[in-house]
Amino acid sequence: MKIELKSTNSSKVASALIKARRNAGSPTMGMVMTLIVVTDSQGYQRAEKAALAASFEHPCRLLLVVTNSRTKTSGLDAEIRVGERVPGETVVLRMRGEVAEHPASVLLPLLLPDSPVVAWWPTQAPENLSTDPIGRLANRRITDADGTRQPMASLEHRARHHGPGETDLTWARLTPWRALLAAAVDQYPATFTAAVVEAQRGHASAQLMAAWLENRLGLQVEVKNTRGPGITGVRLTTAAGDIAITRDDGLLAEYSVPGQPKRLVALKRRDTEDLIAEELRRLDDDDIFEAAVTTLVRRMRREQTRKSGAAKAAGTKTGAAKKTAARSSSRKSTTAKRTTARSSSSSSGTAAPDAAPSPEEAVGTVDPAVTAPDAG
Amino acid sequence: MIDPDRPNPLRDPQDRRLPRIAGPCVLVIFGVTGDLSRKKLMPAVYDLANRGLLPPGFALVGFARRDWENEDFAQIVHDSVKEHARTPFREEVWRQLLEGIRFVPGDLNSDASFEQLKRTILELDEARGTGGNHAFYLSIPPGLFDEVVGQLRRHGLAEQRAGQWNRVVIEKPFGHDLSSAQELNRIVSSVFPSQSVFRIDHYLGKETVQNMLALRFANQLFEPVWNRNYIDHVQITMAEDIGIEGRAGYYDGIGAARDVIQNHLLQLLALTAMEEPTSFDARQLRTEKQKVLAAARPPADIDAHTARGRYDGGWSGGVKVRGYAEEDGVPPESITETFAALRVDIDNRRWAGVPFYLRAGKRLARRVTEVALSFRKAPHLPFTNSDTESLGTNALVMRIQPDEGITLRFGAKVPSTQMEIREVNMDFAYGGAFTESSPEAYERLILDVLLGDPPLFPQHEEVELSWQILDPVLDHWAERGDQPEKYHPGSWGPQSAYDMLARDGFAWRRP
């Protein structure tokens, strides 16, 4: 059943929800949470599709907040959907003008009693989630750096301002990769001397992967540019050779462990609905993500230092840079094969092992031009 | 350099996003041409791969008396996956699986066939890096277990070496009485140690078991009333609306009690009635289940507190169906029951005096499995008799199939000016909440086998305790040797089932 309300307010929406449920014979909804999706008129349909798909696993009251503060007239329109092949309840709240600046006043009366509140920003997210009016309503806040115009910069921003209950979908995109890597190390519990992540230039998840590996392995992890899509490979170097998972087509990966035959493994880049369903499975703080973004911040700082150091004195090299350079040179041949002409020409250690790595290549920085929102 | 004891730096107990992926291994299915294998096992293998839970370097070997090449078998797997898998078919997942699919044609009693099986497995260990880890799924009649297990031992396929494993999966029925169950266990355990033997009750998914445990032990609300002070009896039902579906060869001589009550319903009883385990590891759980099964006993007067029936011909759910005796392959002298009910008493402090009624049957009104706890009446009702005339008793129902969830029945006032109180249902469905599109029982089982997770499925002690409860009843029925009472197809069973509860002053709920 669908109810449309023009120029309405929260209490009318709440009554309409009750009415819609009564009309459906007051079925048991078993709704487990309120999911607030904050989006604009462009991102709205994709976000709705993903949220509805996720609500099959997590039946919820879905509040889709579509704001447009540019119009002069102020007002709230609502569209209520109950029992339309979707578990739970869906309310689209269109806020115009002044109302759009006070969305929390609309949302607070519509939260389900007691159960958790999750807020998700599929595209641009507020600067500070924990002081944002909608963010403050939620105990779990989900952003998506890949949905923004500058994924890398957005992820860095999130990393610097990480607060409890916050995660970013770039992290969920890594789960299948991380699971495979963990399984590989289960099988081959060696000590690692180096680790490299290979990915499309400017891919935010790749930086996060590198930060996670760096945090877990205690090694400086390098990110190398390839043609993509998304992450194309991760190599963990042991004395007997590399544990390597490589994926060139975004679908099927090749998995190799020293002393064992190469094998294929399906490693599909997942849709947003799978990612959001994964996020909703856990409503507590993600400590591992927190540790990874802390390392990410450290990596960024290191990068900053190196950049300014390189700018000041071209001849002086830091110890870390030397190490990185030496490592990259030892894998020269494999890297050369995998990287594109563009990136290998500018790629650091491969061209001249002695030179300090060009900062851009070693840690990979923002490149807004080359990003796909659904990358994983 | 490789140190197996070194903790994996990429794993962290806090990292609960990471699933456990099984290590590389070979799954060998005996009886691969059977229905179960095509409809359940192979699709489950694909679904696991699709969910990213199968290791790179997984191999599937089929063994059957067919003149097939690897490609023919791969085609069979492909078709059964396309038709029956739960998750969408994806080419790249299929390519991952296809690399490791092999077929070994042969007879279970032929040494040459097992030599070839061994060669195939060794070749896979090399080519796929499966590292000597093998799981043998015996999807064959129990009568053949002896042969297969013996062959595996003779050809060195059951040896337990450090760092490698060989496991075996067997399905219900686990024997047909206590002594045959013991014999079966002797055969299997002579070759495989008990932690390598996985007995599967595919009716009882791990998910269900965990749901029941969470309801009972994660809540403060239910435990205080979960005893004889508040509960007056418990009904455990497993009803199927189908008949024997042409499987007379399997079903005749087994019957509802052996097929379902011995394993499934007594497991549900154990989970409902057991004390709180000290932890949820499989061993503690088994200990508690064993304790309660050891305290359970069959009725003293078997004729009064059991019922057996057999479906007649007639109309069931709008379809005209044949009676059991007219089904193909059922011998005229058969006394097999298609409905069985019995009362079980549990002699411990928590449950003394609370009868547990178990019933299972085919061609009943609808497919349903549930455990219903019926509460005592309130000691005093401050209403007039006419107010509470239609008030029954409170009930807590754990629905297990087909719509898993919880129902609470309690009294509520009928909206009107008069005071009238009637029973209402409050429902919760797991189906909607939290299900990761409900992994099928077989997926969980196969994954447990490959991971070596101590199964929640019963080990032989529980199997034997269950037979101890059921054997006296089965013996008594066999002694009587008469035909089971007929019941209408699509009904809720024979009259004797109703009578057996009426004797105790109760009535079956309509599930």
In CATH terms, what is the fold-level topology of the largest domain in chain B?
Dihydrodipicolinate Reductase, domain 2
Q: What would CATH call the homologous superfamily of the largest domain in chain B?
A: Dihydrodipicolinate Reductase, domain 2
Beta content of chain A: 15-25%
What's the tally of helices of chain B? 14
Question: Low-confidence spans of chain A: pLDDT under 50, at least 5 residues?
Answer: 317-376
**Number of helical segments of chain A?**
15
Overall SS class of chain B: alpha/beta
Domain Glucose-6-phosphate dehydrogenase assembly protein OpcA C-terminal (chain A): 164-293
Biased composition (Low complexity) (chain A): 307-362
Region (Disordered) (chain A): 300-376
Organism (chain A): Desertihabitans brevis
Give the arrangement of secondary structure elements.
The complex is a heterodimer of chains A (376) and B (511).
Chain A: E1 2-5, H1 10-23, E2 33-39, H2 44-54, E3 60-68, E4 75-82, E5 89-96, H3 103-107, E6 117-121, H4 133-137, E7 140-143, H5 151-160, E8 166-168, H6 169-172, H7 175-187, E9 194-200, H8 204-217, E10 221-226, E11 231-238, E12 241-246, E13 252-256, E14 263-266, H9 272-281, H10 287-312, H11 319-330, H12 332-338, H13 341-346, H14 348-351, H15 359-363
Parallel strand pairs in A: 2-3, 2-6, 3-5, 6-7, 7-8, 9-10
Antiparallel strand pairs in A: 1-4, 4-5, 9-11, 11-12, 12-13, 13-14
Chain B: E1 25-30, H1 35-50, E2 58-64, H2 70-84, H3 91-98, E3 101-105, H4 111-127, E4 134-138, H5 145-154, E5 166-171, H6 178-189, E6 197-200, H7 206-217, E7 231-239, H8 248-251, H9 255-273, H10 282-295, E8 296-297, H11 302-305, E9 306-311, E10 314-316, E11 319-321, E12 339-346, E13 356-361, E14 368-375, E15 395-401, E16 405-413, E17 421-429, H12 441-451, H13 460-480, E18 485-487, H14 495-502
Parallel strand pairs in B: 1-2, 1-4, 2-3, 4-5, 5-6, 7-13, 9-18
Antiparallel strand pairs in B: 7-14, 8-12, 9-12, 10-11, 12-13, 14-15, 15-16, 16-17
Helix pairs in contact in B: 1-2, 1-12, 6-13, 9-10, 9-13, 10-13
